[in-house]
Design brief:
Layout (H helix, E strand, L loop, with lengths): L1 H15 L4 H18 L4 H85 L4 H6 L28 H4 L3 H8 L3
Length: 183
């Protein structure tokens, strides 16, 4: 039994203990092959990943700058611009009132001009000769009967239409200055 134990011990010493030169060389080659197999060349991939990360960081910086700009614009808008807009709106109220008065004035002038045109057309119908060409050619007519003279009617009385007064719509500077001064 001793012999069997010695042979097991010697074979285990060869496997686990000192190895032969061939085994050592074989083991070295095997470990180099595994090492080459396990090597990963990430140089190109690493550059690609770094480029993507750099691009993302650049975009993140741009986004943060945009957010910062929007925040500052919001503060500027709420703090300065909005009150200025409100003040301008109050100033525009007087301009709007003037525009409304001007529209009223324009409609009044239009109405007066239309009334005056109607009166002029009516006066032309009443006072103008009917057909001046016919009146000129009538006496030249050889075969026509002479019309007996008719009595001329007196012209109708002229009724003066109401015309607007601009001082009602545009006060003079003196009256405006007097209303602005305290008594």
């Amino acid at each position: 039994m001793q012999n069997a134990n010695d042979s097991v011990a010697s074979s285990s010493k060869d496997v686990w203990g000192e190895m032969s030169a061939d085994s050592t060389q074989l083991l070295g080659n095997l470990s180099k092959d595994y090492a080459n197999y396990a090597k990963v060349y990430i140089g190109d991939e690493r550059r690609g990943i770094e480029d993507v990360v750099d691009d993302l960081l650049t975009r993140l910086d741009e986004f943060m700058a945009s957010v910062s700009l929007i925040r500052s614009d919001g503060i500027l808008c709420l703090g300065q611009t909005l009150p200025q807009i409100h003040e301008k709106q109050k100033e525009l109220e007087t301009t709007f009132a003037k525009i409304d008065k001007l529209e009223t004035f324009v409609s009044t002038v239009k109405e007066c001009v239309n009334n005056m045109e109607e009166k002029v057309e009516e006066a032309e119908r009443i006072l103008a000769p009917e057909n001046s060409i016919v009146k000129v050619l009538k006496p030249l007519s050889l075969f026509s009967k002479r019309a007996e003279p008719t009595e001329k009617k007196p012209p109708p009385q002229y009724a003066h239409p109401h015309i607007f007064n601009t001082s009602d719509y545009f006060p003079s500077k003196q009256s405006a200055d007097q209303t602005d001064k305290p008594p």
